[in-house]
UniProtKB/TrEMBL annotation:
<dbReference type="InterPro" id="IPR000086">
    <property type="entry name" value="NUDIX_hydrolase_dom"/>
</dbReference>
<keyword id="KW-0378">Hydrolase</keyword>
<comment type="similarity">
    <text>Belongs to the Nudix hydrolase family.</text>
</comment>
<keyword id="KW-0460">Magnesium</keyword>
<dbReference type="GO" id="GO:0016787">
    <property type="term" value="F:hydrolase activity"/>
</dbReference>
<dbReference type="InterPro" id="IPR020084">
    <property type="entry name" value="NUDIX_hydrolase_CS"/>
</dbReference>
<dbReference type="InterPro" id="IPR020476">
    <property type="entry name" value="Nudix_hydrolase"/>
</dbReference>
<protein>
    <submittedName>
        <fullName>NUDIX hydrolase</fullName>
        <ecNumber>3.6.-.-</ecNumber>
    </submittedName>
</protein>
<feature type="domain" description="Nudix hydrolase">
    <location>
        <begin position="40"/>
        <end position="162"/>
    </location>
</feature>
<dbReference type="Pfam" id="PF00293">
    <property type="entry name" value="NUDIX"/>
</dbReference>
<dbReference type="InterPro" id="IPR015797">
    <property type="entry name" value="NUDIX_hydrolase-like_dom_sf"/>
</dbReference>
<dbReference type="InterPro" id="IPR029401">
    <property type="entry name" value="Nudix_N"/>
</dbReference>
<dbReference type="Pfam" id="PF14803">
    <property type="entry name" value="Zn_ribbon_Nudix"/>
</dbReference>
Length: 187
């Protein structure tokens, strides 16, 4: 297990690997004090922001795959709500301030232990400045989106579905994973 601790952070006893008493999963745990080392998924929060029929994408400046495009999104920080994380990431990556309209997608990728939470949002301010993780940002018409340069397959799938729903004027809330999913429509 990469980056797993070898010793208990509370009593410095060597950690064992196995199913702790009362638990259901094998984990590292301390036989002396009972500490359990949990490894939980990472949460990525972001927004689909539309303005005049165009969608905000940012071009990655950092690995993996700099130069590819994605929705503004990133890892949630401790002490943030998912909404705060999504709006912070939009601001850091594009210099755009936004207001959240509604949740849109909860998408799990268990193979890499990540959960994407994507909101619908509207732009309220565009500064033209963006952070060091971004090479560029743009609002794209659907026909101009660089589909083959969208880095994350989950993000491409979410954006494609959103554009179809936008054209139909009916939005769902999507819950799924990289193998299957279901759209729950809101009235």
């Amino acid at each position: 297990m990469p980056n797993a601790p070898r010793y208990c952070p509370h009593c410095t006893t060597a950690l064992d690997r196995g199913v702790p008493t009362g638990d259901t999963h094998a984990r590292q745990h301390c036989p002396a004090c009972g500490y359990i080392h949990y490894v939980n998924p990472k949460i990525i929060a972001g927004c689909i922001i539309e303005r005049d029929g165009r969608y905000l994408l940012c071009q990655r400046a950092i690995p993996p795959r700099p130069g590819t495009w994605t929705l503004p999104a990133g890892f949630m920080e401790a002490g943030e709500t998912t909404e705060q994380a999504a709006l912070r990431e939009v601001w850091e990556e594009t210099g755009v301030r936004a207001d959240i309209v509604s949740p849109y997608s909860i998408f799990s990728v268990p193979k890499i232990s990540e959960v994407y939470i994507v909101f619908r949002a509207i732009a309220t301010e565009e500064t033209g400045q963006f952070g060091p993780e971004t090479l560029d940002y743009r609002f794209f018409a659907p026909e101009d989106i660089p589909w083959d340069e969208i880095y994350y397959p989950a993000i491409r799938q979410i954006l494609e579905r959103y554009i179809l729903e936008r054209q139909a004027g009916v939005y769902g809330i999507y819950m799924g994973n990289d193998d299957s999913g279901k759209v729950h429509f809101m009235r």
